[in-house]
Amino acid sequence: MQFVGRQEELKKLRQKLESDRSENILVYGRRRVGKSELIREALKNADGVVIPYVCRKAPFAQNFSGLAKAVTHAFDESYVTFQDLAGLLAYVFRRASQQKVILFIDEYPFLREDDPSVDSEFQIAIDEYQHDAGLKLILCGSYMDTMQKLVESSAPLFGRFSEILKVQPFDYYDAAKFFPERTNEERFFLYSVFGGIPFYLLQVQNDLTPEENVEQLLIPEGAMLESEIRLQLTAELSKEENANYVLEKIASGIGKYSDLADNFPGSSNGVHHTLTKLVDMDLVEKDAPINAAGNRRKQRYVIRDALLDFYYSYLFRESTARSVLPAKRFYEMNLRAKMETEYLPRRFEQVAKEYLVRKNREGQIQPPFFQIGRFVYNDKTAHKNGEFDVVTEDENGYCSYECKYRKNPVDMTTVHEEEYQISSLGLPFHRLGFFSRSGFEGINPGKYPLISLDDIYR
Fold it and tell me: What are the CA-CA distances from residue 83 to residues 65, 97, 256 (Å)?
């Protein structure tokens, strides 16, 4: 398949690889997010000697032996041997003073294991040879905890990287490039369920409907992507059951720390450890309102990953029904109505945020906003708290966007309802915009920003 997206990351990598100086590059991100594919694309037609090595989940001695073979093979010098990592790195750096050399070590945490002295060997070699050699060193890995610690101020390699790339999942727009022949409705559905991880998107079969892909890839017990979810969690979490508890609670709408800590099946600090890990893995994030960021009572945890959101919202607790019902029947009974009325409307708000961020970065929103998120308020008349889900803040104040995922176009009735609510609550919104699945009817586009589902994908 043709390489998709990542043009900015690709440009940065190629600039580093083509420079006339030593470069130390750190590339990290979640499992299956496409880090290795990005680097391989950058290495296509690269000048010089390229030494790629993928570390295994094996003892250091085994990985060191494999790395040594990769080095000697690249230089066609099988007679060369190395006693230790320091000697190997010294050899590679010295060769890089004579010709261009790119050393690409994938899954670096498997080489490092839990021994920071491995980092120190790289740091010593970099400090000794970087001014005399033009080595391009790329360290890549999926273990978020290990990779993020490499750039902490106390780490041996702190300050040694000339480029640090954290590869993120695709947003809705780049994810749609995997499905060029599908309708925008189908693209949105698939992104809402499978998210922006390239490996997940590649599992979608284009000869099946979006619903049929869910029935095949997720509903049957032990389905392929259910196994992927488990692998994602067990890779860095010692207790999968703790993660299951937290993720299920968050998916059900319980996001406050105190509520998550109630009845947690473990030690008193277990929920803190689990949440910290899930946040570090970019699976969960702490969400605070843009108008009450410092109010801890208003903060909550939310699931960042669409696949996890969908799975823990509708599938995790239904293992019995999934084991006794045909996948198609389960979908009809348990998912079809909820997708239309609950899940897809919720994900539509997330896609609206991603659209606004994309357009803001492109300079197409004036004035540009510097914050986006939810806005909370207290309705003193009704004696209840409420929130607007998609609000931006710019130099003029707040702008609220109402998102309607329904089959009928948004008309002036909806506009008047929103304006009345804002006015009656006395909220400081200087502008009101609308996102609509099915377009608009009878609304002046010069007065309100109007964005349809088709507009989002243009």
Answer: 10, 22, 53
- CB-side neighbour CA atoms (13 Å) of 17: 24
- Following CA atoms 274, 275, 280, 283 in sequence, which dihedral angle do they give, to the nearest 10 degrees? 100
In sequence order, the 6+-apart residues with CB closer than 8 A to the CB of 386 are: 376, 377, 378, 379
| The token pair that represents 213 in the structure block | 């892909």
pLDDT tens string 393-450 = 999 999 999 999 999 999 999 999 999 999 999 999 999 999 999 999 999 988 999 9
Contact assessment for residue 351 and residue 273, using Cβ atoms and an 8 Å cutoff = no
**Residues 6 or more apart from 172 whose CB is under 8 A from it?**
187, 188, 191, 196, 351, 354, 355, 456
Q: Is 269 helix (H, G, I), strand (E, B) or coil?
A: coil
Q: Which two tokens stand for residue 270?
A: 């277990």
Which residue from 289, 294, 291, 237 is spatially nearest to 266, judged by alpha carbons?
237
Q: How far apart are the first and last CA of the chain?
A: 23
The alpha carbon of residue 358 and the mean position of all alpha carbons in its chain are separated, in whole angstroms, by 15
Residue 373 phi/psi, 5-degree rounding, is 170, -155
Q: Which helix or strand (DSSP H or E) is residue 74 part of?
A: helix 60-74
From edge to edge, which strands make up the β-sheet containing 101-106? 49-54, 101-106, 136-141, 23-29, 163-167
DSSP 8-state class, residue 178:
G
Distance between CA atoms of 397 and 393, rounded to whole angstroms? 5
pLDDT number for residue 267? 73
Residue 340 carries which DSSP code?
A: I
- Which two tokens mark 447? 């007065």
Is residue 255 a contact partner of residue 300, using CB atoms and an 8 Å limit?
A: yes
Name the DSSP letter for residue 181.
T
pLDDT band at 268 (very low <50, low <70, confident <90, very high): low
Q: Name the phi and psi angles at 16, rounded to 5.
A: -70, -40
Phi, psi of 388 (to 5 degrees): -105, 135
User: 146-167 burial, b if ≥16 CB within 10 A, otherwise e?
Assistant: bbbbbeeeebbbeebbebebbb
* Distance, CA of 301 to CA of 235 (rounded, Å): 21
Dihedral angle at the C-alpha atoms of 170, 171, 173, 174, nearest 10 degrees?
-10
